[in-house]
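Deliverable D5.2: sample structural annotation.
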Amino acid sequence: MRVLITLLLLVFLNTGCVSSPLKQAVDEFDAYHQVGQVINDFVIIGEKRIPIPTGNWVVLTKKTGYVDKNRGAIGGVILVEISGNAVTQMVLIKARLSEQVSAKGMKEDKHFNRADLHYVEKFSTDAFNRDYIGVHTAKLDASSLMKNGIWKDALLRLASEHNIRPPRRALSATFLVTKNYDFIQAQYIWNPDTDPRKQTGINWKDPDWEYPLFDADQKFYANKIVAWAKGWHPLIKKAIHRIGDSSSATGSTRVPGGSNSVELKLLKLKNLFDKGLITEQEYKEQKAMILAADLR
């Protein structure tokens, strides 16, 4: 009888028991991210605040999953910005909800080893401290989405229910940062039809809209995305190096690079200027105000 009880207990521990802190992390993620919710500043996954560019972002879909025999969990969310019946920007963010894992760090992602990379930089390749940036063409047609269920289902639903379609081809900036057993993977995608950084003469629908077949105008546009990615990179790194705020009455976590950081404000201001939404004079005035406020 004692042996039977022991066997049943082992089965329960290996299959049905999810630790309380881990379950709490998943529940908090599910409660925070609601489909249809509008987000403006950052996405919260676990203790990390992951920044998003300026815009009115809508949560298109979300997903959580337990990994490593229930000793860890990952949260993922897809955000879209919509204008009329077009998707202007998209963001796919995945991150670990809990560090209760025993496996090695996040595996090297396919985004950084593909043949059509316009730009890639690997700052650290250590298994527990990866730090990558990659810029490449994002193919968002049905055939390209077949292997990615969360992308495919969300985008097909958007098209069928609301007649809103993403671009067939776009440019993507992808980041992967790991710290010990924690990680953030963030992919930012822009629609060339609506992105003011694109040269007006580019026909991005041509089959050659893929590096290394870019012409001079296409490379010029892609290099603007690279410049943005390099400027955004420090914010992704800061998001994973979180700092507990001991002065907080609620015990919440303060994250450098969050919605109130100088770096994020300046990057979002530069984003507005690059998109032509503010003049150069307005950009300089607002930049001076942000820097002056930080010195007080």
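Annotation notes: Residues 1-16, 101-105, 243-259 have pLDDT under 50 and may be disordered. The chain has seven helices and twelve strands.
The annotation will be released with the project's public dataset once the embargo ends.
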